[in-house]
Amino acid sequence: MENKIHEIALTGGPCSGKTTGIKKMQKKFTKDGYKVFIGREIATDVILGGVGDMAELAKKDMKQFIEVQRRILWENLDQRKNVLERAKIFRNEKCLVLYDSTAMDGKAYMLPGAYERILKQERLTYFDVRDCFHGGVYLVTAAEGAEKFYTLKNNKARYESTLKAAREMDRKRRNVWLGHPHFRIIDNSTGFKKKMKRLYNTINSFLGNIEIERRFLLGSPPDFSHPALAEAVKIPIVQDYLLSDGATERVQERRYGSFSVYYRTKKIKIAGSESAQQEFEEIIPEEEYRRLKERKDPKARTVFKNRYHFIYKFQHFELDQILSPRRIWKLEIELLKEDDKISRPPFLDFKDEITGKAKYSNYGIARGL
């Protein structure tokens, strides 16, 4: 029997514990029975392989800098293809691929619009460089909350010599992942040992298909002039529910400019819990999406919404503007544990917590509950 190959992108800021984390996770998940494959950090190979200080190159010759970034992007994509081909040899085993940074991280080092121009020139989309991974995990730099441990000594390709520079690069690298549907941030609120445990638990949550979410109803539209929302990434979504036995099943079209990605999702409630459910999600071709829509639940209307991804206090939030069949604003956050603490964004108008309230679920809205 063939098993799913799970791909997890592990990225982070300068001196965040990413390289150590990759090694620890490989050891832990191998012990758990997984065949673990590692995608190395291409940018470090390129820098140490002769290109040198990328920041200096950008100042000296922007054209050369852009072309090096283009090569880093393609070498990442080629590596992913090769790693997946190796993993497919072992499809009868549980396979996990951990990537030490990806093609997406290069965007953090470029001027606004430059990365998108490269994607367009190479006929690529955000799906090819970001959303193709089953999960994305971001480790926050030691310069944010663990300052005494920040160092340049353990990575010759690191050039952020001050805490301020490290924090700014951390913010940029973090934000390029906004828009991924399953993106988690691990900060330095605990010691490093517990940080690694949280990393292990986060990856495990992706592998176990357990989704824990809390949801809130807003009393008024948000103010997008707030700095946290000014950097939000907007993704239009069209969502239809299917006739299904014993589970909630849906198909989605998520739009990225002129390009769309299609998903099929099945959710099964976990008895005794309002916030936890099993979620099985897969990316499907457009043809399958059209075919599945033929068994659309006739009692459920199509849900149209805009989803805004943003970060507040190292938490990844999803802000949904439901356009039809009802007009409401909802806020969602994925958690590791049901009792995880949440720092609510004070710039939002919270009206009520709606976790577990069927009337405000997307399915409930589609059914007109």
UniProtKB/TrEMBL annotation:
Any one GO molecular-function label of the UniProt entry: phosphatidic acid binding
InterPro entries: CYTH-like_dom_sf, NadR/Ttd14_AAA_dom, P-loop_NTPase, TRPL-trafficking_regulator
Signal peptide: none
Membrane-crossing segments per the record: none
NadR/Ttd14 AAA domain span: 8-193
Protein name: NadR/Ttd14 AAA domain-containing protein
UniProt organism field: Candidatus Giovannonibacteria bacterium RIFCSPLOWO2_01_FULL_45_34
